[in-house]
Amino acid sequence: MLSKDLAIASNALERITLFESGARAFLLSQQDLSGTAQVAAFLQALRRIRNIARSEPPPFIARVSPSGEVKVLTELKRAWKRSRRASQKRRGP
Fold first, then answer.
1. What pLDDT digit, counting tens, does each position of 42-86 carry?
2. What are the residues facing 3 on neighbouring strands?
3. What is the pTM of this model?
4. What span, in angstroms and rounded, lies between the C-alpha atoms of 67 and 15?
5. What is the rounded (10 degree) CA torsion for 46, 19, 37, 48?
6. Which of 79, 60, 81 has the alpha carbon at shortest distance from 71?
7. Cα dist from 17 to 20, 60, 67, 69, 80, whole Å
């Protein structure tokens, strides 16, 4: 998934929905870019996006900078896994 809405990563409900769906999400880190600049950022990052999409097990959220740098936000995935395990423990076997 490509999006300009990095705020998704900050909204707990949206983030959980992304993770539960098994998404591979690449989100622009800067929302005020023109349409042309958004396309340029994703094109600049395309090779890295492909590599991450192939090598990183889903679900994940990655930040794409205007210069085309890509960083997987692993701390969000770890937090989601911890909360999922805690939720399963509360429910019991």
1. 999 999 999 999 999 999 999 999 999 999 998 878 877 877 777
2. 27
3. 0.83
4. 24
5. -20
6. 60
7. 5, 11, 28, 25, 11
